[in-house]
Every structure is written in C-alpha cells, then in structure tokens.
Design goal:
- It is a single chain.
- The protein is α/β, with parallel strands linked by helices.
- Helix content is 30%, strand content 26%.
- The protein contains eleven helices and 15 strands.
- The strands form three sheets. Strands 3, 4, 5, 6, 7, 14 and 15 form a seven-stranded mixed β-sheet that branches. It has a six-stranded parallel β-sheet with strand order 10-9-8-11-12-13, with helices on both faces. The chain has a two-stranded antiparallel ribbon with strand order 1-2.
- Helix 5 (175-183) links the parallel strand 9 (167-172) and strand 10 (188-191).
- Helix 3 packs across helix 4 and helix 3 crosses helix 10 (274-290).
- The protein is globular and about 65 Å long.
C-alpha cells in the first residue's frame, strides 16, 4: 500500500519540500496508523523544515504535528478500535495521507465534534487551557490581555477566557486582525503594530488598575510593554517567542507589583502527567461540544498546496487556523 507525503530532504523552505509516493507506514508495538483527514498548520512547522526548531527529525522526514482522522491499523498493546475517530499531536508526520504514531498521543474525538474542528484541537486549545487555568490561575471577573490575539492560540485563549468569565483585551497586528479578535470574543482590541500607544489605551480601559493575566506567545518588546500594565498580584504567562526575540524580564516590575511571570508549555504535561493531559483535552472537547468554544479556521488547502499554506502562515497575514484537507 502506498501514500502521498511531503518530504524534507535538506533543511530549507517549505517550497523545497517534495511530494512523494512512498509505502504506507505499518504500526509498531504501542502505535496506531491514522488515515489523516485534516492536518493543521502551526508556526513551528516552518521552523522544523528549516532546521531551526528545538526538535530536529532525522532526514528525510515528513513534517506536520497536528491532525485528525480514523484509525486503520494498530500494533500490539493498543486498545483502539479500527475506525475510531481520533486527533493527535505527532512529533512529525502529519502532512501525509497516513500517519503512524504512539497511540498514547492520540485522543478520541467525541461524536459531537467534527474532524475538521478536532484537527485544530491538539495544540492550541490545550496550550491556552494550561496557560490560563493551571499556570495563570485566571478567575472569573478578572481581566485577561491576549497578545497576537488573531492567531490560532490567541483566539483559543480569547475564547477560553470568555468562557471562564474573564474580560478579554486583545492585541493584534492591524485593523483587520483586531476585528477578527473582536469577532471571536474579545471585549476590546488594540493594534500593537501601530506603536506603544496601546499601553495607555489598556491602562485607560482598566481604570489604571491593569490586567490580571497576560497571555503572550510573542515575546520581545510586546511582552516588555505588557508588563507595564500588569496589575498588582498579576500573572504574566509566557507561551513562546513568535516575534523572534526572547525578552529579558524586568524583574523590578514583578517585585513592585507582587506579580509573577511563569512559563506554559503544553507538551511538558504529555509525558509528565498524562492523566492531567487527558483531562485538559476532554474539557476542551466538552466545551467545543457545548458551543462554548469553536475553532476559527480561516483557510483550507489541499495536500498539494501545503507549501503555499505554510508560506501564508509564515507571512503573518493569516488569522486563526489553517488546515490541509487530504481529500481536497
């Protein structure tokens, strides 16, 4: 049996990948093979293709770290029925018609959630869930500041924050992305690319008190400025450094406000606390099934157009999640 898959031979750009026909994978012990229906794109996919991500697969490899589909084969020790609807976060391999991965990293998709929405779930919603609830201790009635709020993880954080009773202030790049953030639940939105004036706008919007929780996947200057509007006993949660600069935290701002800065990386719980990881994903699916949250999908591409999809994501002109439809 054969399949089509994108392959990275040498580190490079998305357009350097090759779409190849290769043998369909077979499951090893503890593994399952999934017929991929949808693969979701993430910012770090292009970094992995370029060899600039912390995970460097042995080449050649198939990129892609988020997908949904149906189980078509299982290895020894796997308790998954053939045909089971699942989603998962493989280390790589999702930009292909079939993907083999450890069954422990797969999550069953409830009947009330379609596979398109499920493909958007393994990375961004658990990331936002862990960051806001466990690391940020966000409470109902508090004010949440979300940077890059029109991106996949930013929209997830905005939706979860609203579902949990917070007031959400969004920062996004440009008027259109500010509208996207508002359309997906933000109470206010400011363009952080127009200059640092948003700092005073956030101060005014909070009556000078500041925000209780900062959710920041950008880093650099955006994080540094956000600390200026962190409230007394506020929590700044560091998600990543999509802006390309790792900030040096102004500890004096934390000291003077009895505030804290913490990191939040979802993958850290998958191996260390799988029971908690399962709980997080189940909660995300339950909220999705109830309509409290809903993935924002801005574009769907065919497998053949995967390089173009990655280029669009890297341009920072997209919003929400981008998907690859294997049947498209």
């Amino acid at each position: 049996m054969e399949m089509r898959a994108w392959r990275v031979g040498d580190w490079g750009a998305p357009e350097d990948m090759r779409l190849e026909v290769m043998p369909r994978p077979e499951p090893g012990p503890g593994e399952a093979v999934v017929k991929v229906r949808y693969a979701a794109l993430n910012f770090f996919d292009a970094l992995m293709i370029a060899g600039r991500y912390q995970v460097k697969p042995p080449r050649p490899f198939t990129p892609g770290c988020e997908m949904s589909g149906e189980v078509i084969a299982v290895g020894d020790g796997v308790d998954l029925a053939l045909g089971a609807r699942v989603c998962g976060q493989p280390d790589w391999g999702a930009f292909a018609e079939y993907c083999a991965m450890p069954a422990a990293k797969l999550r069953r998709v409830p009947d009330a959630v379609d596979l398109k929405a499920a493909a958007c779930t393994p990375v961004v919603y658990p990331t936002a869930h862990v960051a806001l609830r466990r690391r940020g201790q966000l409470a109902a009635g508090e004010t949440l500041l979300v940077t890059a709020a029109a991106g996949g993880v930013g929209i997830a954080a905005t939706q979860l924050g609203k579902a949990w009773g917070a007031r959400v202030i969004a920062l996004a790049g440009g008027d259109e992305k500010c509208r996207v953030a508002m359309d997906h639940g933000a109470d206010l939105a400011f363009d952080y690319t127009a200059g640092p004036e948003w700092v005073e706008a956030v101060r005014a919007a909070t009556g000078g008190a500041g925000v209780d929780v900062i959710f920041d996947p950008v880093g650099g200057e955006v994080f540094d400025l956000a600390l200026k509007v962190l409230a007394f006993e506020g929590r700044a949660v560091i998600i990543g450094f999509a802006g390309g600069e790792i900030q040096k935290i102004a500890a004096n701002r934390l000291l003077l406000k009895n505030a804290s800065a913490v990191g939040a990386i979802w993958g850290g719980y998958l191996a260390r606390d799988p029971a908690y990881a399962d709980e997080v994903v189940r909660d995300c699916f339950a909220m999705m099934a109830s309509g409290a949250i809903a993935p924002a999908i801005s574009a769907v591409y065919s497998l053949e157009d995967t390089p173009a999809a990655l280029q669009a994501l890297d341009s920072r002109k997209t919003w929400g999640k981008l998907l690859i439809d294997m049947a498209g």
